[in-house]
């Protein structure tokens, strides 16, 4: 009985740690982080922002409680969210500035499931854009300031409450310091070696248990999501050559972009404001970038950049891939110079926003596994509140579980279970018509706004575009009732 009492105490202590850590993440307004402690939480870099901000998760008192809980959990032998930094054994494969590339690892002894995560942060494609990037976001080009540990959140968390189905996996966070959308193979003058970094990470993880893996999920957000699609076939091939029998899967978060409507500029190589297509087209030469063979064969030389767009690349992949995409991705909108919560919004831009949702939905029509809420946001899987977002009453975590069951059933020649969906795309037509969407915030006042309030604040004439500014509540209720 005494032994059982100790076991119960340790389990309770671990649960308290997860809950205190979770409360810290949700507590109040998030203060901005500063200094080298920024690595304490896993934060996301947006696709196109030159200098993305990162915020902490919780007040000072709650953060202290989380640290005390973590220390107690370690004393009790419980696993924590801490991932420890490992530099690559092959020191010839580096970050942009020649510093050592590496990865963060949280091992789960006995688990044969591995979750590898590729960080996002767009790219640079010329001397000018790379110098600008190095001056403004050095952590995306150098490992010199990386902390020794990181704290996993969302699908990278080891707390079952926050991460029901992947908390006990071996979790690997691969920092993005190659600026090449994980495609490069060039060693100098700037080193663009994103694809090679992934290869070396797999090599270093093989003796740590990855050779015995049953499932390897290669995941990523934004540019990291594109990196998943560009590298998943090579990862599967590499693991097979190492003798592993793992099924390799992909999880792409906010990396499913459509081509820009902007007019392409002939002098783009010297401009920071290139379209994504031009940035990649030019960057591929600078990075000596590689794309999957089956996709590359579809396009003539110089057109390989098209393989960076998921709706063109997806059909050429043999590994299963799950697509997570907000229907109104904020980074897609920024490509068209639309900044929600910014200063202005024209009728033409509002029309583009409306059309975007339908275009993204159409592009996902034939995707096997997808989760696409009708919301304005960017990235989701590493957010602490990722479980709160739903499509038709089903969370992303639940959809991933259903996908996992279906793949296992197919692998074992069984019929997949019914009533467990994993293709969930909102049917309503408007941004924010899903009641679980992240809140909209005015950039200047930091106040939470409804969609119509934000449109008014951005100077859109609602009556001109057929919206009634006096019917805010009725309008929102009506669009929610059409789907979500």
Overview in brief:
The protein has helices at residues 2-26, 60-75, 127-136, 194-205, 223-241, 276-287, 293-296, 310-313, 330-335, 347-363, 396-411, 451-457, 472-481; strands at 82-87, 102-106, 113-118, 149-151, 170-174, 215-221, 247-253, 321-324, 328-329, 369-372, 376-377, 390-391, 394-395, 423-425, 440-441, 448-449. By secondary structure, it is an alpha/beta fold.
Structure description:
It is a single chain. With 484 residues, this protein is of the alpha/beta class. It has a single domain (82-434), classed as Rossmann fold (3-Layer(aba) Sandwich). 33% of the residues lie in helices and 13% in strands. The strands form four sheets. It has a ten-stranded mixed sheet with strand order 4-1-2-5-3-6-7-8-10-14. Helix 1 packs antiparallel against helix 2 and helix 4 crosses helix 5. The chain is globular, with a radius of gyration of 22 Å. Residues 1-17, 20-79 and 477-484 have low confidence and may be disordered.
């Amino acid at each position: 009985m005494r032994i059982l009492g100790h076991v119960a105490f340790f389990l309770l202590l671990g649960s308290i740690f997860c809950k205190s850590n979770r409360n810290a993440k949700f507590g109040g307004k998030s203060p901005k982080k500063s200094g080298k402690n920024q690595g304490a939480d896993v934060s996301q870099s947006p696709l196109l922002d030159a200098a993305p901000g990162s915020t902490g998760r919780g007040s000072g008192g709650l953060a202290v409680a989380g640290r005390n809980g973590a220390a107690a959990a370690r004393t009790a032998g419980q696993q924590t969210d801490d991932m420890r930094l490992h530099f690559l054994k092959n020191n010839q494969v580096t970050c942009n500035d020649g510093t050592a590339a590496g990865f963060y690892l949280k091992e789960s002894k006995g688990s044969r499931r591995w979750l590898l995560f590729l960080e996002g942060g767009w790219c640079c494609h010329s001397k000018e854009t790379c110098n600008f990037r190095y001056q403004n976001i050095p952590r995306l080009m150098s490992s010199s300031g990386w902390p020794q540990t990181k704290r996993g959140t969302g699908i990278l968390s080891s707390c079952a409450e926050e991460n029901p189905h992947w908390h006990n996996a071996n979790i690997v966070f691969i920092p993005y310091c190659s600026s090449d959308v994980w495609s490069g193979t060039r060693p100098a003058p700037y080193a663009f070696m994103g694809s090679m970094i992934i290869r070396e990470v797999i090599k270093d993880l093989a003796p740590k248990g990855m050779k015995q893996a049953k499932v390897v999920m290669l995941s990523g957000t934004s540019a990291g999501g594109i990196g998943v699609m560009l590298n998943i076939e090579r990862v599967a091939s590499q693991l097979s050559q190492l003798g592993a029998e793992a099924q390799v899967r992909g999880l792409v978060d906010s990396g499913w972009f459509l081509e820009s409507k902007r007019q392409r500029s002939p002098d783009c190589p010297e401009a920071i404001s290139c379209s994504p297509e031009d940035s990649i087209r030019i960057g591929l030469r600078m990075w000596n970038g590689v794309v999957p063979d089956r996709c590359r064969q579809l396009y003539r030389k110089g057109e390989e950049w098209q393989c960076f767009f998921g709706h063109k690349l997806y059909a050429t992949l043999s590994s299963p891939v799950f697509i997570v995409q907000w229907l109104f991705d904020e980074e897609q909108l920024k490509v068209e110079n639309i900044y929600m919560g910014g200063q202005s919004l024209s009728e033409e831009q509002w029309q583009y926003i409306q059309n975007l949702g339908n275009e993204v939905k159409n592009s996902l029509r034939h995707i096997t596994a997808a989760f696409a809420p009708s919301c304005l946001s960017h990235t989701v899987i590493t957010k602490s509140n990722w479980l709160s977002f739903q499509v038709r009453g089903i969370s992303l975590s639940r959809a991933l579980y259903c996908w996992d069951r279906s793949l296992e059933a197919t692998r074992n020649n069984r019929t997949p279970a019914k009533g467990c969906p994993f293709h969930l795309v909102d049917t309503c037509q408007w941004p924010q018509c899903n009641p679980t969407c992240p809140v909209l915030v005015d950039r200047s006042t930091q106040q939470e706004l409804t969609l119509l309030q934000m449109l008014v604040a951005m100077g859109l004439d609602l009556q001109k575009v057929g919206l009634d500014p006096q019917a805010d509540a009725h309008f929102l209720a009506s669009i929610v009732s059409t789907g979500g």
